[in-house]
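ENTRY TYPE: paired fold submission
RECORD: A
CONTENT: sequence, then structure tokens
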Amino acid sequence: MTAAPEPSLWRHGDFRRYWGGQAVTVAGHGITTIGVSVIAVVDLRASTGLARGRGGP
């Protein structure tokens, strides 16, 4: 006798909402990290070391 396959997580609304929220969070974090660094270097004339939070000359 074979066991019935488990239902896919994609069929659960809670999982889809969680997955979508996590995807938006990760994308937003990446965009913010790059955006703040670019603004610091271009507009504030910071060094790239300062933009990464490592200090600099």
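RECORD: B
CONTENT: sequence, then structure tokens
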Amino acid sequence: MGFALLCFFLWVLPLWSQDQGQALPLKEILIAIEQQHNVTFNYIEQEIIVFNIPAPNPSTTIEQKSITFKPKPS
């Protein structure tokens, strides 16, 4: 029983962690973070307009949100 439960969690948890919600334009997310945390981001709009990412949880800290923006290998 314990092994079956372990296998279940090892199968379900990765599926659950991949559900990150609806992807939004990066520019909108940056504007929301700027307003919430009183910070400013410098970017070239034409370069970021092509990116859509899952919105970070509004209750997380700015440090936790910065992890969201680390590039992932393609």
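NOTES ON RECORD B: Residues 5-18 have pLDDT under 50 and may be disordered. Residues 56 and 64 are 9 Å apart (CA to CA).
STATUS: closed
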